[in-house]
């Protein structure tokens, strides 16, 4: 897991940086965490050593990723509180089974499991609908699903409403990068901003659906398919790896798309 922090920085400096990133004053955070502003000031300046309980309490109020909470504990001289397992570890077998049920149960509609950097972890076979015409360099692991979506050699030429879909994805990534201060996400955002915007494709379709959500309008052969996307996070994660994972699932936005996907059935696996 990549973190925003550099090794060896004092816990007080890390705390101050995150507090400022969250736009909170010392008084705001002290009230939220139930500690005096004077004591918080001493912690930030290194005059007072916080207990592990206080570090975790402050990290929770700052809504820090689990990996950053571990980093802050280490900086304070304490052991990490949250484990970080590989997905193949036996401890995560129930999690892997649940994910597989979600992905398989979503067929014949596409669904993927991605990590905190939008790298593909798993996919159901229906995702081949989106990857059939992508160039091999975008499908060589590790596959980044945002890069695959917006790159001219990926899905972008077939996205009929590319300008609005691109704006939607960039806004999500921008918010995620700001919330986590993750340099990997910031670099990815800079990269994706440099891709063609698709302004030459035409104005987005104006219909009832587009007034409610931003659909993905995708050309498959001579048909236009419309999808609504959802994001599923895993509740109350206590493992660093699990906390960074999400299921991105696509549902048909109209009966025509639903019928087409059922007619296609389950295509040959492309990235599963």
From TrEMBL:
It comes from the Bacteria. Pfam families: HTH_31, MLTR_LBD. Signal peptide: none annotated. Residues 15-69 form the HTH cro/C1-type domain. SUPFAM superfamilies: lambda repressor-like DNA-binding domains (SSF47413). PROSITE patterns: HTH_CROC1. InterPro entries: Cro/C1-type_HTH, Lambda_DNA-bd_dom_sf, MLTR_LBD. This is Helix-turn-helix transcriptional regulator. It comes from Micromonospora zamorensis.
